[in-house]
From TrEMBL:
It comes from the Bacteria. Residues 256-284 form the 4Fe-4S ferredoxin-type domain. GO terms for cellular component: plasma membrane. PANTHER family: FERREDOXIN-TYPE PROTEIN NAPH. It holds the Pfam family FixG_C. One of its GO terms (molecular function) is metal ion binding. The lineage of its organism: Bacteria, Pseudomonadati, Pseudomonadota, Gammaproteobacteria, Oceanospirillales. SUPFAM superfamilies: 4Fe-4S ferredoxins. The chain crosses the membrane at residues 44-61, 88-109, 162-180, 192-211, 333-352. This is Cytochrome c oxidase accessory protein FixG. Keywords: 4Fe-4S, Electron transport, Iron, Iron-sulfur, Membrane, Metal-binding, Transmembrane, Transmembrane helix, Transport.
Length: 462
């Protein structure tokens, strides 16, 4: 950032900035908070998402969590529906469909997901707000950088990190609550009975949150997130993204040094100071830009103070910056839209084909068959039934495939007692017609067959 003598730049306290503030020093920069249209839109997007994240984990319907990935029950409770772990491909499909949506948005509007809804960005802004609340504005933090901490500044720094740790811990507890009921976690924690595994997981998640949002921040967007690398091949000349109008803004000059050839950019540097990734949007499109619009709001504020037209930095396509018509419908965007529609359609169809009753049958590991007398042959099986719907709580068991048979074992299962339990069954028949036959176990609920599992009945060694 170049030093400027005096410029009419809006400050948080005064419209005049009389000295140069070194916001960036040796690679470290302090993000200056700003206000404006896009920051308001971002808050309208992020605060409901934050409320959903912290609140949804507490919601229960009929005593069951509304959203829970339960390892102990081998079930997924998803907004009033219970899925088995065999339905996990549906969640993978949902993630693929979501990725297609991100690609579609990237082609149309750039990295608006990163700037407005990405968890990394949301938590980074939360940590920045805590930093601004405890240690003061970015200019004050920049002046304090490198100086010895003592007295009130030291207390402010300690308070900041304590609040960061508190928010990171709450985040980790909430995230864990989507896999283990949050009430159980807090109940065990209040009695100091939380297991070492859960405690370690919470500590690790809290540490990662603290590091990602508090310490490394933009490094995640710059080096760890693959999405920033994808954008280069997704954008086209009609993609709307945060852009600096170079034709209007150059050459830069502050008001004292301006002449008839000067552009509208007064080189105040506010667009750099408010950027959460520390880039200068005036250098052109960059992989680190997350399209949060902070630089737009800051620049528009300066333009209003100077009685100039806003939009020096704005969402614009390459074609618009070159004063050429921009296409709304184009092949690449239509292609991503078609793939996204197919992906979401497949996922929605998959949710109509979920498993309400899961049955597993194993033959006895001992003898292939048991011969009780010259005419009676028996086969032993082990059966496990898992129910994932309240309508399938009572299950009647029957077999078919043998002309004359006897079934030994529970004829009716109460899944409230025997859910996911291996139960022994024996099927016997007299004078079998062939050495092996197809046998079918059938499972009924309310008189309607819910599942059928095929196996083999053997009466002769091979």
């Amino acid at each position: 950032m170049e030093k400027i003598p005096v410029a009419q730049i809006p400050d948080e306290q005064s419209p005049i900035v009389e000295e140069y503030i070194p916001f960036a020093r040796e690679g470290k920069f302090h993000v200056r908070l700003t206000t404006g249209l896009f920051q308001n839109l971002r808050r309208l997007t992020t605060w409901p998402l934050i409320a959903l994240f912290f609140g949804l984990v507490w919601v229960q319907v009929d005593g069951q969590p509304w959203l829970l990935f339960s390892f102990s029950q081998r079930s997924i409770f998803l907004f009033g529906h219970t899925l088995s772990w065999h339905d996990l491909p549906l969640l993978a499909g949902l993630m693929i469909a979501g990725a297609c949506l991100l690609f579609f948005m990237a082609v149309a509007w750039g990295r608006v997901w990163c700037g407005f809804a990405c968890p990394q960005s949301i938590w980074t802004w939360l940590f920045i707000r805590i930093e601004d609340l405890t240690e003061g504005r970015a200019s004050l933090r920049a002046r304090q950088e490198g100086k010895a901490l003592r007295g009130l500044p030291l207390m402010r720094r300690v308070l900041k990190h304590l609040l960061w740790i508190l928010l990171a811990t709450l985040t980790a507890l909430t995230f864990t609550g989507y896999f283990i009921p949050i009430r159980d976690i807090l109940g065990d924690a209040s009695q100091l009975q939380l297991s070492a595994g859960i405690t370690g997981w919470i500590v690790i998640m809290a540490g990662l949150t603290y590091a990602n949002a508090g310490l490394v921040r933009e490094k995640i967007c710059l080096h760890a997130c693959p999405y920033s690398r994808f954008q280069g091949v997704m954008f086209d000349r009609d993609t709307l993204t945060v852009s600096y109008d170079k034709a209007r803004g150059e050459p830069r000059a502050n008001r004292r040094n301006a002449d008839a050839n000067s552009g509208d950019c007064v080189d105040c540097g506010l667009c750099v100071q408010v950027c959460p990734t520390g880039i200068d949007i005036r250098d052109g499109l960059q992989a680190a830009c997350i399209d949060c619009g902070a630089c737009i709001d800051a620049c528009d504020g300066v333009m209003k103070k100077l009685d100039r037209d806003t939009g020096l930095i704005r969402f614009a396509s390459e074609a618009q910056l070159q004063k050429q018509p921009s296409r709304l419908l184009r092949p690449r965007l239509a292609g991503y839209a078609a793939v996204m529609a197919c992906a979401f359609g497949a996922v929605l169809f998959g949710f109509t084909q979920t498993t309400d009753l899961l049955v597993e049958i194993r033959r006895d590991r001992g003898a292939l068959f048991v011969q009780l007398d010259e005419e009676t042959y028996c086969n032993n099986y082990r059966v496990k039934v898992e129910g994932f719907a309240d309508t399938a709580a009572l299950i009647r068991v029957a077999v078919s495939g043998l002309a004359d048979y006897q079934l030994f074992g529970p004829a009716q299962l109460d899944l409230n007692e025997h859910n996911s339990t291996w139960l022994p069954y024996r099927v016997c028949t007299q004078s079998p017609d062939q050495p092996r036959a197809d046998l079918s176990f059938q499972f009924f609920a309310g008189g309607i067959q819910q599942a059928e599992k095929h196996t083999t009945f053997i009466t002769q060694s091979f």
